[in-house]
Amino acid sequence: MPLSVCRLLLPTLALGLALPALAPPAHAEQSHVEPAHAPPARAVPAAAPTAGHDTPLPAPEDGALCQGFGPQTPRDIALRAGTNSQIFPLAPAPAMMNLCNIHTHTNAEHRGPGFPVASLDPEAGGFKCEGSDQLSAAELEDPAFGHGPFHGVKPGDTIEVHWVYSSCDVQPGKGLGACLSDSCSNPTLRVESQVFLVVNDPFALDFGAYTFDGHISGGRPQPKALPRDTGTPVVFRGSTTGPNYSQAVCSPLQVTWSVRPRCARLDITSLYNWAARGNVFEEDHSHGVRKLVTAPSLLAPMIE
Fold first, then answer.
1. Which of 7, 16, 38, 111 has its CA 20 to 30 A from that of 120?
2. For the chain, what are the domain ranges?
3. Rounded Cα–Cα distance for residues 253 and 213 (Å)
4. What Rg, from alpha-carbon coordinates, does the chain have?
5. What is the mean pLDDT of the chain?
6. Side-chain half-sphere of 18: how many Cα atoms within 13 Å?
7. Chain-centroid distance, C-alpha 245
8. How many CB atoms lie within 10 A of CB 182?
9. Is 144 left (phi over 0), alpha (psi -120 to 50) or beta?
10. What's the pLDDT tens digit per position in 219-270?
11. Is the pTM of this model over 0.90?
12. Does the pLDDT at position 37 exceed 60?
């Protein structure tokens, strides 16, 4: 795809990602490597059984499904079924790629064992962590009194964080444009995903532990760490996400996804600090979500 075409597509991609992949690397199936120094993430304790993964799925979207497209995202990562037959090579492990972007979505775009609860806000959509309705008044108190430097999220919210990787020789930066270059307009892309329950708690995880801040490992830009201890990531083929797409308006692009199945608690102050200090991604707000893709014809079979 010519770079000029890619750049025209970028404004419509929200922050969800993917471009046609290159030839498969020999190590493609080694799909998950995390820095040895990653701090352990404390998974959110399971809530009452009524908040479990038996929670019914939202009603399917009305209207005709898009035709002729590859597998779409987001999906329920606990369901393995999928009949979309379009195949593309899996991206290499994160350590073999270059971090190009970090951003967040308010409410989880995916549905998983630790975040099965559908948002009650039909405009927002997405899913919430188990236990999000059982927080104390102190955990729900906003230390910025509604005027925090990172917008669109408050204590008690669920967010899904995306660490975006590119095969291009690029540096981290703003939006999807940072993931390609004039000499690399057809990158292989990968997203590492973690869902967090945002709380007012200095003993919860510090978002600063997972940011870039100029960190280089193996000669490549990398986050300082990726979350761990929230379950083995579910790896699958998918597409761009973001609210511009639906089951009727599909993304034509491709991405390898790696989604951790359980939530972790994240301190709201650390998220505010990321925005207040400034970051190379110019992120100062959380983004919207794409509705869950449920049609089997739009989902890839899960990787064994």
1. 16
2. 1-22+63-304
3. 29
4. 18
5. 86
6. 29
7. 15
8. 6
9. alpha
10. 999 999 999 999 999 999 999 898 999 999 998 888 999 999 999 999 999 9
11. no
12. no
